[in-house]
Design the sequence.
């Protein structure tokens, strides 16, 4: 998994991008990136976009990290939005009962502007 915590987007949010596989082996690094984005948000608004559009495979391992990051941001009056286009991620979130917590955003732009997409059926 490649991950990058990028600079603030329009000074309004942070972005964590992941690519490749998110699984038991890569989840610890992914979790560190999510926590680092939260620490960096301290001077900004607590808004985080997690871009999974380049993730080719994801098992249930990172769900705890996503939920924990969402809880941290929401507890501070912010939000966490997830960009995903892979049908497998949509199915995983649906099976875990998390589609309400993580609606699908097709792009970072859509996530920034809260324009969620219909999830895969």
Sequence:
């Amino acid at each position: 998994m490649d991950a990058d915590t990028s600079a603030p987007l329009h000074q309004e949010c942070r972005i964590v991008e992941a690519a490749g596989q998110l699984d038991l082996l890569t989840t610890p690094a992914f979790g560190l990136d999510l926590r680092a984005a939260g620490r960096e948000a301290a001077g900004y608004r607590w808004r985080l976009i997690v871009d999974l559009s380049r993730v080719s495979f994801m098992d249930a391992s990172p769900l705890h990290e996503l939920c924990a990051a969402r809880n941290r941001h929401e507890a501070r009056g912010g939000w966490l939005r997830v960009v995903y286009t892979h049908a497998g991620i949509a199915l995983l979130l649906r099976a875990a009962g998390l589609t309400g917590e993580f609606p699908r955003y097709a792009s970072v732009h859509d996530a920034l502007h809260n324009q969620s997409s219909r999830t895969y059926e």
